[in-house]
């Protein structure tokens, strides 16, 4: 009995170590704040640990944990905790550490993108982040968000339209097309 628990604990520890950067990135993009992202990842992993048998037996443990994260974020949003997006001062969102392997991390206007994402409504932000940053299919995104594929398409289209309307991002897109 003790060996089985030790094995599960070790398996979970390896899962956390391997997934931590990606979970933090997703949580940061959902919340717009490093500290809120850390809290979101921690509460997600707490839930995942208590359900580790189900998580590890799932066809896609990453999708299972991502869904737990989306649900936890949605619960916080529904409670109207105003911290979920608004920067506490005029400095804007806290920048995450750039990952050299991540093409988005090398973008000159990463700050403008993060600020624009922070202005999107929660469901649009979730759809855009999961579809374009996490590179999930519409079906995977719908499963993660707990909605239909049509809702994902609608939220994604609205979110992208709002992002295209941000002048700083429009300038970036134009400059990117010339290089």
SSE arrangement:
Elements: H1 2-31, H2 34-50, H3 52-57, H4 61-78, H5 110-119, H6 122-133, H7 138-145, H8 149-164, H9 167-178
Helix pairs in contact: 1-2, 1-4, 2-4, 4-7, 6-7, 6-8, 7-8
Give an overview of the whole structure.
Residues 111-163 form the RNA polymerase sigma factor 70 region 4 type domain. GO terms for molecular function: DNA binding; sigma factor activity. InterPro entries: RNA_pol_sigma-70-like, RNA_pol_sigma-70_dom, RNA_pol_sigma-E_actinobac, RNA_pol_sigma70_r2, RNA_pol_sigma70_r4_t2, RNA_pol_sigma_r2, RNA_pol_sigma_r3/r4-like, WH-like_DNA-bd_sf. It is a single chain. It is built from nine helices and no strands. By secondary structure, it is mainly alpha-helical. It has a single domain (2-178), classed as Butyryl-CoA Dehydrogenase, subunit A, domain 3, CATH 1.20.140.160. Helix 1 (2-31) crosses helix 4 (61-78), helix 2 (34-50) packs across helix 4 and helix 7 (138-145) crosses helix 8 (149-164). Mean pLDDT is 79; it is low at 80-88 and 90-98.
| SS strand fraction | under 5%
Distance between the termini: 60 Å
Q: Radius of gyration, rounded? A: 17 Å
In the CATH hierarchy, what is the superfamily?
Answer: PhyR, sigma-like (SL) domain
Order of helices and strands: HHHHHHHHH
Give the second-level CATH assignment, the architecture: Up-down Bundle
Short description:
By secondary structure, this protein is an all-alpha fold.
């Amino acid at each position: 009995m003790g060996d089985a628990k030790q094995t599960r604990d070790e398996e979970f520890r390896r899962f956390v170590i391997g997934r931590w950067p990606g979970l933090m990135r997703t949580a940061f993009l959902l919340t717009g704040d490093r500290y809120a992202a850390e809290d979101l990842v921690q509460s997600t992993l707490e839930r995942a640990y208590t359900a580790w048998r189900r998580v590890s037996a799932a066809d896609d443990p990453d999708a299972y944990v991502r869904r737990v994260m989306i649900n936890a974020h949605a619960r916080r949003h529904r409670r109207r905790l105003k911290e979920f997006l608004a920067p506490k001062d005029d400095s804007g969102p806290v920048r995450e550490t750039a990952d050299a392997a991540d093409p988005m991390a090398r973008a000159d206007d990463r700050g403008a993108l993060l600020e624009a994402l922070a202005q999107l409504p929660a469901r649009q932000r979730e759809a855009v982040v999961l579809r374009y940053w996490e590179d999930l299919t519409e079906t995977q995104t719908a499963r993660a968000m707990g909605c239909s594929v049509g809702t994902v398409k609608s939220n994604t289209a609205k979110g992208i339209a709002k992002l295209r309307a941000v002048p700083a991002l429009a300038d970036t897109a134009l400059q990117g097309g010339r290089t």
